[in-house]
Structure formats: structure tokens, C-alpha cells
């Protein structure tokens, strides 16, 4: 007589682990084969899975996991983050991104010593731990460092004069000889004040993305061999000056983009604006970025850039 399997209950088919072993229905006894768990989408996290995600996710989502039990391994995570190479995190959509940005103005710039600090205002760090105490800006998809387009726009806008800022007016005049105050003011309004909908004359500032890493030890000095690979991030320290800076100083560890790393800045520029061509605007932006820098602590040398032809 054929057995009716459809009449069997669901729990007869599903066998939970019993003492680490599964039940062998055919033999009617336990086997020596260990229970290996579910193999589907919700399978248990394997050892070292922490270090397979992108560095942005690790820094903000998984960094302090295990801290309550003393198993956060912050030093190991710091080491992994600062040793991550650019070639390990190339996005699968790199070609599509390049195609989408075809026709836009591209400027490649290299980070100068001592490095670049972006996103320091984002909350991160706990007192007394060996973690990175300052926040950092990562691209959500790739996990790579990114300079937001809003930050690029803010740096450029900061050098155009507002009311009564004669020193900035003189600075723009040095870059645009022959321009008067009213013409400079009008240019700044068109470039940065977009209260209404964007027009064909409205420039667009895109995020600056990493285009090349750099070898920390500079073992290989061939620039071509460093293209699209190498290290990106390193650690650094600052010591805040308290009431008595010479008594028990407490250095703060933070993360930075290494000197030599390159970023590509993308702009959508009008063909002509206030008598300036798109090439003229591009040169103007390059000069301002080189003079001012981007990110935090530019007054002590961080965030300065050099244009790469």
C-alpha cells in the first residue's frame, strides 16, 4: 500500500536541531553528522563576515557591534579600514556612471599632505575607546570616501562676496581681471542662488569621487601602476588644547584621506555665462579649490588640492 505523504503534518518534515545533530528518519536514530543550519537568505553570519562589507557600512553600521560584551575588535576594524585598497571596492556600475557623466566637465585633483578630512561633523566615537573619534563621509553605495556636491558648491560660493566683503571682491577680481563689483555680484547670484527652478544657465555640482589610490610606503613609484589601486585611508591624531595642554594630553584619533589620493570633480556648466565660457568657469573653479581646499581643518593644512592635467 502506497503511503500518503500529503497527509503528513508539516512538523514531520521539518526537524529542528537536537543537541547539535539532526534526526535520520530512515534509520530511526541520530547520525553523527552535525546540524549545519539553514542555507537560505537568513543563514547565520559566518566568522569574519564583519570584514566583507564596504568600509562605509562597517564604519557606521557595524563598528560598535559587540562592544557591550567586550568583543568589538575596534583595533582590528581600524586596521581593516585603513588597509582597504581602492581596487577592492570598484563599483560594478563604474562604466554606467562614466557614460552618464559623459559631456560634463571633469576636473581631477590630488590630495596634498597631510591629507583630507571630510564629514567630521557627523557623530561618531565614544569616550575612552580606541576608535575613530570623528565622523567621515562615505558614498552610500560603494562605501568609498566622497566629497558631496553640496560641499564643493559651498567652498566655491564662500569665495564670492556677500554684503561688504571687499576682500573677497578683490580676490575674484584677481582671477577675473577687468571685472567690476556689480558684475562679480551678478555672477555669484547666477552660479549659487537658485531660489527658482534651474535653467540652462544654472550649473550643477556633482559629488567628487575617488579616481586613484596611493601606496602608503611608496614602494612603487610608477604612476601608471598606481592607477585605480592602492590605499585610500589612514589614521591621524589631534590633541585639543585644554586648560593645561602640557598636563596629561589626550590625543584624539581620526581618519583621513591619504595624501596622493585623487578625486574627480564633475560639473554641468553652461556654454556661456556672463561672458565666460564653460572652460573659463572650469578654470575659475580649479583656482578656487586649489587656493581654499575642501573639508575640515583647512587652516592647519588639511584638504588642500593640486590640479592634475
What does this structure look like?
It is globular and about 65 Å long. 24% of the residues lie in helices and 17% in strands. The strands form four sheets. Strands 3, 4, 5, 6, 9 and 12 form a six-stranded antiparallel sheet that branches. Strands 1-2 form a two-stranded antiparallel sheet. The protein is built from eight helices and twelve strands. The protein has one domain (86-308). By secondary structure, it is an alpha+beta fold. The protein has helices at 10-13, 55-62, 74-82, 94-100, 149-158, 166-175, 181-192, 278-292; strands at residues 21-24, 29-34, 105-111, 146-147, 204-205, 208-212, 233-238, 252-257, 262-268, 272-273, 276-277, 305-308.
List the defining traits of the structure above.
17% strand, two-stranded antiparallel sheet, 309 residues, six-stranded antiparallel beta sheet, globular, alpha+beta, 24% helix, 12 strands, single chain, 8 helices
Average pLDDT works out at 75
Number of helices: 8
Specify the helix fraction band: 10-25%
**Main sheet makeup:** 6 strands, antiparallel
Show unreliable segments.
7-51, 223-228
Domain tally: 1
- Beta percentage is 15-25%
> How do the helices and strands follow one another from N- to C-terminus?
HEEHHHEEHHHEEEEEEEHE
Overall SS class: alpha+beta
* Overall geometric form: globular
> Based on DSSP secondary structure assignment, what is the total number of beta strands?
12
